[in-house]
């Protein structure tokens, strides 16, 4: 029986999370909704009316789709990193697990704000945790013959 290679599992999680977030970001442009609008909100005839304490976040989600743009760009970067572009292959950026942990945690933080990308944000947080586990086990990504293998 073999051992679980955590960075390979995290890579698959990140690929599926990034594809899901890319698709959800497109939907977020069409249906703009801030996820945490129920905090301090009131129930009106058309649904939840956000409270005044979430006004800045509602503004950058509904009026200016800034969070949707960030989630779209971060998901594209995650796809380019996990399914490496030819210019990224065999570079230190592609092999850095620490960069992935920070990037995916940031992606999860941005994604948790938009209603459509909440699920992907949770998956990115799990992916970040799996990459941390891979670093704790001492796994590294070495490029050999076009395939990423574990040294652990």
Automatic annotation (TrEMBL):
Residues 1-139 form the DUF7727 domain. Keywords: Membrane, Transmembrane, Transmembrane helix. InterPro entries: DUF7727. The chain crosses the membrane at residues 12-35, 55-81, 101-126. This is DUF7727 domain-containing protein. It comes from Saitozyma podzolica.
């Amino acid at each position: 029986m073999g051992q679980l290679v955590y960075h390979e599992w995290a890579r698959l999680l990140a690929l599926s999370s990034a594809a899901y977030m890319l698709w959800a970001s497109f939907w977020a442009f069409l249906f703009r909704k801030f996820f945490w609008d129920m905090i301090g909100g009131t129930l009106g005839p058309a649904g939840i009316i956000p409270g005044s304490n979430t006004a800045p976040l509602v503004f950058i989600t509904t009026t200016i789709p800034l969070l949707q743009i960030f989630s779209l760009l971060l998901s594209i970067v995650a796809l380019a990193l996990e399914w490496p572009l030819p210019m990224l292959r065999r570079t230190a950026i592609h092999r850095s697990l620490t960069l992935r942990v920070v990037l995916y945690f940031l992606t999860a933080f941005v994604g948790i704000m938009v209603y459509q990308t909440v699920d992907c944000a949770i998956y990115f947080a799990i992916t970040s945790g799996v990459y941390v586990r891979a670093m704790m086990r001492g796994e590294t990504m070495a490029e050999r013959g076009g395939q990423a293998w574990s040294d652990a």
